[in-house]
Amino acid sequence: MLKSLKTPSLQRLDIREIKLEELEFEEPKKPIMKSPTHKLYKGQYNKFAVAIKRYTYTANTTPSEVRSIFKKEVETMKRFESPNILRMFGICVQDEDGPCPNYLIVMEFCEKGSLREVLSGKDKLSWGRRARMSLDAAQGLYRLHQSEEKFKVHGCISSGKFLVDDGYRVKLGCFELAKTETSLRRDKKGNSTSVHYCSPQQLQNVHHSYNKACEIYSIGIVLWEIATRQIPFKDMSEKEVSQKVCAEKFKEPLPEDCPKCFVKLIDACRSYDAFQRPSAGVLVDKLRKVVQEMEDD
Predict the structure, then answer these.
(1) pTM recorded for the entire structure
(2) Are 268 and 251 a contacting pair, CB within 8 Å?
(3) Cα–Cα distance, 273 to 35 (Å, whole number)
(4) Residue 222 is part of a domain; what is its CATH number?
């Protein structure tokens, strides 16, 4: 009992501004990931392993402006808390009084990296595990879709946007503190969905309003990846993908040994007609049944 009281709880940590001395990480060491806009380090915060994103070339945004945006966004982020959404801890301002302050975004660390990395790796994944991972992904999206009266969409669903922890739990990421992060980037362009995950409606009309049905199509492609472990529309150009999806109403095939209940659900998400795709809530309910069926076998 005493041991459990001393163990830090992830749920008790509020999203807030974090002091630099509260973080443990060695910046000079090699980052675990690099991008044109940031470097990602592994560190510790309150005894939890965390990922620390440090922006390399920041916009001319003052610390007070960043704090103002961050405080407004924290209230929104609190409504997204879920085991299947990547946990945010907050921001940290480094060298605030210097000529070039550094900004750190502190978030939950997922040991296995992105879902795409796991699927491209050598870990053995049974059909039961794949079904549970699919359920996790759907639950993350559902939490987002039903979090506000005015619905919210992720805007950029792909297998690279989901993270996987050491127990193979899948968490939806890459939308946390989006406004705060946009204020830090020199490049103000938002995320855009890769053509491989675009619905037929988006491919046919670049002005098509992005909505929940588009996102269900995208997660259908992600579920196909989980089932096959392959890259969608590999080596195809944007024009070829559009031809296949729109003109031919083509769906990439699933493995012969893929459970029929799983096949039916993945194909429903990839339906050409938007109204035939399930909602995120229906998808979660049906995936729970798929998981149950596989566990009963």
Answers:
(1) 0.83
(2) no
(3) 36
(4) 1.10.510.10
